[in-house]
User: What shape does this take?
Amino acid sequence: MKWQDKGYLLTTNKYNENSAIAEFYTENNGKATGVIFGSTSKKIKNYLLIGNKFHLNFNSKLDSKIGYFKIEIDKINTPGFLDNKKKLFCIIYTMSLVKLLTVDNEQNKSIYNLLDDFFILLNSKKWLSNFIFWELNFYKCIGYDIDFKNYVKNITIDGNKKFIVESTNKVIPNFLINNDNDIVNNVDIIDAFKIVGDFLDKTIIKPNNLNFPSTRIELGNLIK
Assistant: This one.
């Protein structure tokens, strides 16, 4: 099997002294795994950062055996955020989420396009609230959609319009209901991040017997 594609680096693990096993999310082949020979060379290792985008040449002699990649850098993404711990952890979490919840060798261009969008939103002023919407869109792409409007009722507290979950009376940040992040404070972002995390845990992680991503917990601790 041979193919050429573009893809985002999700993970790398040492294979032997000079090689690594890498996982990419590609445009036309979905999540793909293979060996990168010579990954410790200066030409490659400086670019081999999770989140960077690569031109990929994949070759596998047998479908039952792991193939190998020849790679060239297409777009340097992650190094631009090495001095911003929150954004860096957001990259790490996002790539681990894609790895965890996508299927090997199954094309989904919507997810690939979302990864393009992800690195654009990181440069926006309201990147955290934009990321919360991004995460919900990702879950929708893999078959887990939620419309918070179906679970809340409208009440007024101290003259302010609020949305609460009918079964628990838990307040839901207005911007999650209105899909509008023009006016969002840090408390709303923290609450929304927790709410989306609960949705991930109860609707996706636990029913599929998966481990909740520790990288999301670390990101949550950073944005508090």
Remarks:
- Strands lie at 2-16, 19-26, 30-37, 53-59, 67-75, 152-157, 160-165, 171-172.
